[in-house]
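thought: fold this chain, then report.
action: predict
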Amino acid sequence: GIAFIDSQVYVHQIHSLKNFLLVGDVYKSINVLQYQQDYRTVSLISRDTNPMEVYATEFTIDNGHLGFVATDSMRNLCVFMYSPDSREAMGGHRLMRKADFHMGQHINCMWRVRAKLSDPSTSQRLLSANEKRHVTWYATLDGSIGHLLPVAEKTYRRLLMLMNVMTNSLPHTAGLNPKGFRTIRQNKKDLRNPSRGIVDGDLVFKFTDLSAALKAEFARKIGTSADEIMDDLAELDRNAAHF
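observation:
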């Protein structure tokens, strides 16, 4: 052995990226560790201080931004980030939860794949930003597969407004509310508000099946055009067209 560190209750997930380690504990959420080769030591950089029964963990990469994804026993998916400048982060010792999403399924496996660099239908090269953008794929105990894809801020804002309009305007199965279903669920009361921060792809991709009149109406409500929304959805589909 070269280096060691005392862990929490029971570590069952470890992922490495260069000299960083993402550690998932079955009861104590996630820790981010750093291996220092010069001193041959492993040190704790930051951790999530709230208890979470972690099922799976993985890194998420968007150019210069690094996030940490974790899923739990309540069928939630959370994205954490290291933000030492934030007041709530206590100088970086606490990971900040930037996004959360109720999946409705237990996710027990995740892996990263670089976003597609070319259009699979035309072999035309996509944006150069994809060279350092990774798609985080996941598999559930129910046998389904899906992915988490970082997007530009402008695209996220547009799709978020579209999701809100579609939630309020479209009839849903059995009258259920997608926004309520996707809100994080916990077995203990939490004083923090849901971070959300993730667009429901299943919902926004229903935009492609709407009539031309509804597309134009929804686009007008959010101050854009139907063609621009269709371009955004097509780009998302191309970026993750690995299968």
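thought: worth noting. The two ends are 40 Å apart (CA to CA).
final: tokens above.
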